[in-house]
Design goal:
- This protein has about 150 residues and is an alpha+beta fold.
- The chain has two domains: about 1-85, no CATH class; about 90-145, no CATH class.
- It is built from three helices and eight strands; from the N terminus they run E-E-H-H-H-E-E-E-E-E-E.
- The chain has helices spanning about 20-25, 30-55, 60-80; strands spanning about 10-15, 15, 85, 100, 115-120, 125, 130, 135-140.
- Strands 3-6-7 form a three-stranded antiparallel sheet. Strands 4-8-5 form a three-stranded mixed sheet. A two-stranded antiparallel ribbon has the order 1-2.
- A hairpin with a 2-residue loop joins strand 1 and strand 2 (about 15).
- The termini are far apart.
């Protein structure tokens, strides 16, 4: 499946055009799910790549950081063309209303102040709302931040 953009136009995927997200979701839900999964996997890869970059010297970091930024912006653009966006809540205070599954929620009491320590999977949204919930690891808000 080729999602490239020849001549500034989106290629067809299985007979459905990617510039009409509603049509893509209605006529070929498998392709829509594939685009969502590819976006999530690209997001995960960028996070791993970023961690690896931090182990390089400053000159090499800059060279590869530019490539990472280009890849991230291309992925965001392609997802936007499909009517999707990824949401990262890392560092925000946790709220039960967040569209995430906390994999370590049993480690805490309901009354504790928590924050999203790490996003394992981003939240996927479209114009209609939630497409796929994110997965997170929670952490306790340090006492000095509670005030």
């Amino acid at each position: 499946m080729d999602l490239g953009r020849p001549n500034g136009r989106l290629r067809q995927v299985g007979g459905d055009r990617l510039d009409n997200p509603e049509k893509l979701a209605q006529r070929s839900p498998d392709h829509f799910s594939i685009v969502v999964s590819m976006g999530i996997e690209s997001w995960r890869f960028c996070r791993v790549f970023d961690r690896v970059l931090k182990k390089l010297d400053a000159i090499e970091q800059q060279r590869y950081l530019s490539q990472l930024r280009f890849h991230m912006s291309s992925t965001e653009k392609n997802l936007a063309d499909a009517g999707l966006r990824l949401v990262n809540l890392e560092g925000q205070r946790f709220d039960d209303g967040m569209a995430v599954v906390a994999v370590n929620s049993n480690d805490f009491e309901a009354s504790e102040n928590l924050f999203v320590e790490q996003m394992l999977d981003p939240i996927v949204m479209n114009a209609d709302g939630l497409v796929r919930m994110g997965r997170v690891i929670l952490g306790r808000v340090p006492p000095c931040v509670n005030t």
